[in-house]
Amino acid sequence: MEIKNSKIILRDFIEADIDDRIHWETTETEWQMWDAPWENIDKFNPDQYRKERLEWLAKNKNENRVRMGFQICINDGRRKHIGWCNAYYIDDNYKYTKEAGHCTIGIGIPDLTSRRKGYATYSWKLFIKYLTDNGIRDVYTQTWSGNERVIGLIKKLGFEECYREYNFRTVRGQLYDALTFKLNRIKYNDFCELTEINE
Prior knowledge:
Residues 8-182 form the N-acetyltransferase domain. The protein is an alpha+beta fold and 199 residues long. 31% of the residues lie in helices and 31% in strands.
């Protein structure tokens, strides 16, 4: 499955993406300084990752299922793969859960040459539309207070802070707050109308 707008394509994971992800996890790793940098990245095992992804690709899947993530490609002749967006659930206390909860989105664009070109904005705009068109009423996102670039993206799209846990994360020796935002649909719709006019 793929969906697209004028800037990007969101598509299902394919076998060629395995090598890209291994590259981003082991070589082009700058993004890890901002995307949950407290996680232990040393545990990544390329061989295990390849095995798990190939097994997942081989499984039969319902093509009509609601996707909880897409790979991001630039919408041009090359269709360059630059990252991913995903969704997960948090509970009423804003903690990750495997049970039913509040839909929460994330994004990663490890490709350094694709930064600051609007691709993250257009990816989330399309992903949010896909989720809401498929029955997701409320959309949340989470980050930490030191990730100023993604906070700018979050606020631009119309998310509003709804929960803050002070001094929750230690990143490079400094304490930061854990932040949760909820999408204000009126602000989001206004943003979408404005960007459509300017496309």
